[in-house]
């Protein structure tokens, strides 16, 4: 879709930047030389035929990290581990989240995608027994810094969930909820504006403008999900996290949400978890593949899908398991 | 398919049908038995109360007098005592139970949840006579020595509510009974509230947290509104228990058939009166008056329980429709 036509705001990193990345990183520099992913030029980005170009054996079995540190990254995550009680759900994940880009996270069920997503806005704090180590830096400071207030942080990081979950309130109050608790508006007129513009940008305004007072739970599933997106962008976050936002929706509603994601990308950094590889390919610029709690590979979406560097990634995207 | 198989199948089906019919009748009989028992209770209450009610008519409900010597009986004092002790007990118990329930569901670290939860269930299982003994020998002296003098000194001089805190600190009385009742119903109310709070879907709380709400905001704007009907149901169940509680109250209320304007004064409740006097009640009118008291209590608790069930039912229906 669009990502091949539109210029990406961030300079696209290919493996040329890779060596620097690993060196700067330290953590994943342990990849043996012989297993280093082969270099790759722009020409390799053809949509088909590349998967078998490199014999599987030549690809690494150790995690491949092509995520060179991204300049002006929104999030810098280094060696993030998450434990639920004694169980480790995430193992040494290091990844950067770029601004004005969609990062897709794919991987088999239970591999820790949601867990990672929920680290980014400290939602794991609400789970008893969950523990996070490592560092996740947002504008120069670790978000798990005890000095930092989780609520303030979450106000800057919107989240959209798998199941549409509007509050049992009116459509208007759903969208106005965030601005109200953060006192973002000074007058009712201003609040009206925020509600209107949020609903418009979520592509829902025309459908609900005549019934803003009716309950948000009375909308269709797809409308509810767009309402949740409107509710999220009403607080003007810098990042939007989405955990399988379309898995409860039909194809048409899904397409609308995907279009919406594409528009939102102009303003926000978006991290989306999806089980649909087509969706990842359609909406994202970068893709990260998780496996059993480890980040196996991350890179440009085109590159990951046409020329995965790790055997596990290849197996997953070719449908051999997962 | 040959015919002998068919007949075997048919016979099996007939046997099954018979078994099913017997089973259904048996369960129906059990269910009817419950209704029959309830009807029997109501009937015997009405029959037993009839002499008193027909003799005193409506004045039975409005008179404070309770004099076995002149055979004059009015239910106002015990009704007043029952309602006031229960209301006060709820006033004390609701905030505490709410705090316990919120703490257990939203704030407590995982390792603390179970022990505290089990402790609450154990508290609910303590026989009421133990609360009575404890109230009389431990709580009442403490109230008499420390709490009541302070209440008299601080609240006594106040204009309107000052009236409620007059007179000597007896230790036993309406206020003490309310304290004991509050302690007795806290486990019930907090257990129900905790269960209700646990029905609040995580996704709802998380979407609120996700918008940058504080725990405080999530509790007041998501958890409480969602759980409101269930919380009321829990309070009503606690109220039902407080209204009917006998032994513990009898120990600490003082058992005086009068309506003192002060909460520190002794009083009585319906169940305490019945328990105290039934053994020595001589004369038909005396006995009948006590039964009439019982009928009134039955009516009050029945209403309260019915209301509580209705509230819980509404909550359940909403929880189901949200799935
Ligand atoms: N609240 C929790 N308590 C204990 N373990 C958990 C909890 N949440 C997740 N886990 C475990 O952590 C691991 C990663 O879970 P996570 O939900 O992140 O997977 P996922 O990649 O999002 O899977 P899916 O694609 O099915 O959503 C799983 O093994 C899961 O069992
Ligand atoms: Mg998930």
CATH superfamily of the largest domain in chain B: MetI-like
Order of helices and strands of chain B: HHEEHHHHHHHHH
**Percentage of residues in DSSP E strands of chain B:** under 5%
Distance between the termini of chain A: 25 Å
Q: Kindly report the spatial arrangement of strands forming the biggest sheet of chain A.
A: 6-7-8-3-9-10
Determine and state the CATH class of chain A: Alpha Beta
Cα radius of gyration of chain A in angstroms: 20 Å
**Bound ligand species:** adenosine-5'-triphosphate, magnesium ion
Structural class of chain A: alpha/beta
Tell me the helix content of chain B.
over 70%
Q: Do you know the CATH architecture of chain A?
A: 3-Layer(aba) Sandwich
CATH topology of the largest domain in chain B: MetI-like fold
Question: Would you give an account of this structure?
Answer:
- The complex is a heterodimer of chains A (322) and B (323).
- Chain A is an alpha/beta fold.
- Chain A has one domain (75-317): 3-Layer(aba) Sandwich (Rossmann fold), CATH 3.40.50.300.
- Chain A has helices at residues 2-5, 18-25, 113-120, 150-156, 171-181, 188-201, 205-208, 221-233, 251-264, 277-283, 301-306, 311-317, and strands at residues 75-84, 87-97, 102-106, 130-138, 141-142, 157-160, 239-243, 269-273, 286-291, 294-300.
- In chain A, the strands form 2 sheets. Chain A has a 6-stranded mixed beta sheet with strand order 6-7-8-3-9-10, with helices on both faces.
- Chain A is globular.
- Chain B is mainly alpha-helical and 323 residues long.
- Chain B folds into 2 domains: 1-55; 59-322, MetI-like fold (Orthogonal Bundle), CATH 1.10.3720.10.
- Chain B contains 11 helices and 2 strands.
- Chain B has helices at 3-56, 59-62, 76-107, 110-125, 128-154, 174-198, 202-210, 215-244, 247-252, 270-277, 284-322; strands at residues 66-67, 72-73.
- Chain B has a two-stranded antiparallel ribbon with strand order 1-2.
- In chain B, α1 packs across α11 (284-322), α3 (76-107) packs parallel to α6 and α3 runs antiparallel to α8.
- Chain B starts with a helix and ends with a helix.
- The mean pLDDT of chain B is 88.
- Classes of the chains: A alpha/beta (322), B mainly alpha (323).
- Magnesium ion binds next to α3 of chain A.
- Magnesium ion (MG) is lined by residues 113-114, 243, 273 of chain A.
């Amino acid at each position: 879709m669009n990502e091949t036509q539109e210029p990406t705001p961030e300079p696209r990193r290919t493996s040329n930047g890779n060596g620097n990345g690993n060196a700067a990183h330290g953590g994943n520099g342990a990849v043996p030389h012989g297993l280093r992913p082969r270099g790759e030029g722009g020409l390799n980005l053809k949509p088909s035929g590349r998967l078998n170009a490199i014999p599987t054996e030549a690809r690494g079995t150790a995690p491949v990290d092509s995520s060179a540190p991204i300049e002006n990254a929104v999030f810098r995550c280094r060696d993030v581990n998450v434990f639920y009680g004694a169980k480790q759900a995430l193992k040494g994940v290091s990844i950067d989240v770029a601004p004005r880009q969609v990062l897709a996270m794919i991987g088999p069920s239970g591999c820790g995608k949601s867990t990672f997503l929920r680290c980014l806005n400290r939602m794991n704090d609400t789970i008893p027994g969950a523990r996070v180590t490592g560092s996740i830096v947002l504008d120069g400071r670790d978000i798990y810094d005890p000095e930092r207030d989780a609520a303030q942080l979450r106000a800057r990081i919107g989240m959209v969930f798998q199941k549409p979950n509007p509050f049992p309130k009116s459509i208007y109050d759903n969208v106005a909820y965030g601005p109200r608790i953060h006192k973002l508006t000074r007058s009712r007129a201003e609040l009206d504006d925020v509600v209107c513009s949020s609903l418009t940008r979520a592509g829902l305004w025309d459908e609900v403008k005549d019934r803003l007072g009716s309950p948000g739970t009375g909308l269709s599933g797809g409308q509810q999900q767009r309402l949740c997106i409107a509710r999220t962008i009403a607080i003007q976050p810098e990042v939007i996290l989405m955990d399988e936002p379309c898995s409860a929706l039909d194809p048409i509603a899904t397409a609308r949400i995907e279009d919406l994601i594409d528009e939102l990308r102009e303003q926000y950094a978006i991290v989306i978890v999806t089980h649909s590889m087509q969706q990842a390919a359609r909406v994202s610029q970068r893709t990260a593949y998780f496996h059993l709690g480890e980040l196996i590979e991350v890179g440009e979406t085109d590159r990951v899908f046409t020329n995965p560097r790790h055997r596990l990634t290849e197996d997953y995207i070719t449908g051999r398991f997962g | 398919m040959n015919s002998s198989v068919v007949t075997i199948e048919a016979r099996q089906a007939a046997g099954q049908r018979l078994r099913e019919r017997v089973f259904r009748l048996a369960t129906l009989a059990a269910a009817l038995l419950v209704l029959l028992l309830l009807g029997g209770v109501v009937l015997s209450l009405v029959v037993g109360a009839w002499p008193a009610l027909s003799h005193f008519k409506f004045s039975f409900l409005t008179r404070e007098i309770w004099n076995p010597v002149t055979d004059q009986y009015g239910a106002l004092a015990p009704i007043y005592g029952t309602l006031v002790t229960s209301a006060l007990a709820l006033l004390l118990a609701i905030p505490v139970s709410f705090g316990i329930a919120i703490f257990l569901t939203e704030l407590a670290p995982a390792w603390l949840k179970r022990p505290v939860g089990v402790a609450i269930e154990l508290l609910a299982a303590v026989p009421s006579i133990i609360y009575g003994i404890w109230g009389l020998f431990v709580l009442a002296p403490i109230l008499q020595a420390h709490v009541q003098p302070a209440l008299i000194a601080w609240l006594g001089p106040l204009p309107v509510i000052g009236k409620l805190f007059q007179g000597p600190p007896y230790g036993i009385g309406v206020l003490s009974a309310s304290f004991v009742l509050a302690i007795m119903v806290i486990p019930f109310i907090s257990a129900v509230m905790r269960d209700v709070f646990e029905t609040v879907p995580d996704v709802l709380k998380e979407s609120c947290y996700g918008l940058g709400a504080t725990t405080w905001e999530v509790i007041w704007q998501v958890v409480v509104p969602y759980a409101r009907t269930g919380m009321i149901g829990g309070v009503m169940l606690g109220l039902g228990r407080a209204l009917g509680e006998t032994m513990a109250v009898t120990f600490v209320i003082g058992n005086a058939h009068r309506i003192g304007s002060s909460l520190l004064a002794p009083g009585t409740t319906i169940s305490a009166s019945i328990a105290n006097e039934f053994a020595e009640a001589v004369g038909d009118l005396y006995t009948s008056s006590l039964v009439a008291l019982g009928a009134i209590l039955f009516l009050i608790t029945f209403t309260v329980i019915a209301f509580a069930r209705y509230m819980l039912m509404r909550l359940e229906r909403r929880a189901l429709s949200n799935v």
